[in-house]
Request: fold
Amino acid sequence: MRIYYLSTNGKAAPWLAALREALPGAEVMEWQAGAPPGDHAVVWAPPQQFFDEQPQLRGIFNTGAGVDALLGRQLPPKAVLVRLEDAGMSVQMAEYVCHAVVRHFREFDRIEEDVAQRRWAYRRPNERDDFPVGVMGLGVLGTRVAQALAHFEFPVLGWSRSPREVPGVRCFSGGAGFDDFLRATRMLVCLLPLTPATENIMNRDTLGKLRPGGYVINVARGAHLVDEDLLALLDEGHLAGATLDVFRTEPLPPQHPFWQHPRISVTPHTSARTLRHETVAQIARKIQALERGESIAGVVDRLRGY
Ligand code: NDP
Ligand code: OXD
Reply:
């Protein structure tokens, strides 16, 4: 069995070593143009040329949860496309989102400003019930995030494509439930996959339905958010702020207004990093299962887009 590893970050060596250790019977190598046919590929955003040269691939394993970049390629029709399921990302995502929610709710930014001025100032505590948090996407990551927020006793709402039940979370689904979900939400978290149905989903119309003083946390993909609409709603005062980890263009261009905006916090696509050990272990288990002819979880439905 031959397995190719392809990444855009130029750090192939430790991945190759980890894959070889986890799959001792396999020939694991970095792909080069003109290389012989492989059986499986472990990839992040590979060039189209790779798929054009490897039409016989049986498994394509993404080293991330979101497969939007891969679905933009022409993939070998028979290969199963497999996404990462958690692999250490859900706890990171829960940390990140809880941090952003708590920082806003507890007004830690303002406290830091006071402290910088050596000002010993108390603020009236906010009421938790006035800060309902709505999580769009109740999959592997969204469910963990919603449950973590519920532990902090925020009112938590969730929205998904099909009906879901998550203890401690008021769940809505589909187009029919979207308006009610938005109108009941003040702090909106996006953990949707990027698909034709979810692109630009955070726009003037939808963000305008959030409760006054709304707050946006985007940890999914930059194309979920219409940048200009967010800026307009912040300027108009309907929204109080945003924490953004993902952007339409990454790295975020130096001249982009998000960098300097006083009520936007920017992080460099770092809310949930791919962890090599967990990722290789999960992918190796799935390759072995496929080789035994077993079915595996995390196979992407290419028509649905996630
Ligand atoms: P999952 O596939 O497990 O969950 C996706 C959720 O979104 C499901 O609940 C699904 O509904 C819901 N959904 C999909 N389409 C729609 C729609 N049209 N309307 C309403 N709900 C919809 O994905 P993960 O939780 O693993 O990951 C989510 C995304 O997070 C990834 O696709 C990726 O873009 C992003 N991500 C970002 C990272 C970062 O570092 N910033 C790191 C990792 C992931 P249903 O339950 O009905 O299927
Ligand atoms: C992912 C990501 O999709 O890191 O896993 O963005």
The domain at 90-266 is CATH 3.40.50.720 (Rossmann fold).
